Amino acid sequence: MRTVDEHLADILAAVPVVPPLSVALLEARGAVLAEPVEAPVPLPPFDNSAMDGYAVVAADVAAASEADPAVLPVIGDIAAGDPGVSAIRPGLTARIMTGAPMPAGADAVIPVEWTDGGAATVRITRPAPPGHYIRRAGEDVLAGQVVVDAGTRLGATQLGMLAAVGRSHVLVRPRPRVVVLSTGTELREPGSPLAPGEIWDSNSFMLTAAAMEAGAVGFRQETVGDEPEKVRETIEDQLARADAIVTSGGVSMGARDVVKEVFTAEGAGGPVVFGKVAMRPGKPQGFGLLQGTPIFTLPGNPVSAYVSFQVFVRPALRAMQGLPPEPLPTVGAVITEDVKSPAGMRHFMRGRLSYHRGTYSVTPAEGQGSHQLRSLSSADALIVLPEDAEAVPAGSTVDVMRMPS
Ligand SMILES: Nc1nc2c(c(=O)[nH]1)N[C@H]1C(S)=C(S)[C@@H](COP(=O)(O)OP(=O)(O)OC[C@H]3O[C@@H](n4cnc5c(N)ncnc54)[C@H](O)[C@@H]3O)O[C@H]1N2
Ligand code: MOO
């Protein structure tokens, strides 16, 4: 049996990085920047006012007080985007709004609260030093400075930054398109009635959502029964739009394990390797490239499929965008119960994390069977017990992966 680390290393060595393309800014959300973006101009581009108030020569108001205000004629207004007054001389002032360019000759801004708010002349009751309430050109970003590095996943703040330096389009590695397909003759669409022996398909919904949570674009396919030709056709049809394919079911030792049958057959279109990985749940795994497109054939038991996704598919999707293939965020936590773990297997248990006074603790969920979706859906963490652990006493510190929420 191969180890989890060996299987993951093979996957990461094989998955291609999605090619970069230029997209409009809002379409870039969730994509990974493929070029360093520099500011063509400084930010702010010009010295401007931080407050609504009056642009003054600081020396003119140096002696101003409540008892003896400085009284200055107002020569006009300067609004953001409308530099009505471009310069002032000593002894004069101009009303200025937040973000408006400082007029030449002025070296301070007096906020309107320190004045009588006059429009023709203004009474200023407090002094201010030179530079007061002026935001200097380049104080945020210098011209030529890289504002977002290549390799950054673009969220709201990065998109704001890119817009602020004038970019309408950027070169990105887009979110991989992941096609998810459940196989199994027993599966029915939720919302339709069940005949004896049938169950509703849950995996494809869970895995499509997990792909989205991992930063991919998820496309769920309708389930396909255990018909090799239909499975092959459905997957081959999807190759045109998929950057990766994820299947669930049909990969273990049964007489009708359809996914395994299709992709181990001669001429199946690419080498998908099926084997056992030393983990619980998630032992039967398959991975390969179909005409260059990665396909992950995950086991059908719902918990097995989910754990396999987080352990193998999620890091691979990150690698495909040029991101480090990190595992889910992991914390150390004190386990609250004695647990047993199979020797030689990495064991992923469902649990609930809690945090108290600087320490995490984790309680294993009731029902650790790989068919028990209820305990998975009420869990927020996967407890990772290493291959060499067999009995882990309560009070031990264990690694815990936080499930995305
Ligand atoms: N003789 C052996 N039998 C099994 C072995 C083994 O090593 N030797 N491994 C077991 C393990 S571990 C797992 S995991 C499963 C994996 O089986 P398959 O990937 O072939 O999955 P299926 O047989 O199609 O389904 C297993 C189970 O999961 C249910 N299922 C499948 N798809 C869905 C879905 N989309 N939504 C909800 N539930 C689903 C299915 O009805 C079965 O109950 O094999 C063990 N057997
Ligand atoms: O791995 Mo199976 O995935 O243990 O139920």
TrEMBL record:
| EC id | 2.10.1.1
Q: Which cofactor does it need?
A: Mg(2+)
Q: Name one Pfam family in it.
A: MoeA_N
Q: Which UniProt keywords apply?
A: Magnesium, Metal-binding, Molybdenum, Molybdenum cofactor biosynthesis, Transferase
Residue ranges annotated for the MoaB/Mog domain, each copy included: 179-319
Q: Does the keyword Magnesium apply?
A: yes
Catalytic activity as recorded in UniProt: adenylyl-molybdopterin + molybdate = Mo-molybdopterin + AMP + H(+)
Report which superkingdom the organism of origin falls in.
Bacteria
Instruction: Cite the CDD domains for this sequence.
Output: MoeA
Metabolic or biological pathway, per its Swiss-Prot or TrEMBL entry: Cofactor biosynthesis; molybdopterin biosynthesis
* Keyword Zinc-finger part of the UniProt annotation: no
SMART domains membership: MoCF_biosynth
Q: Which NCBIfam families match?
A: Glp_gephyrin (NF045515), molyb_syn (TIGR00177)
Record's family?
A: Belongs to the MoeA family.
| Protein name per UniProt | Molybdopterin molybdenumtransferase
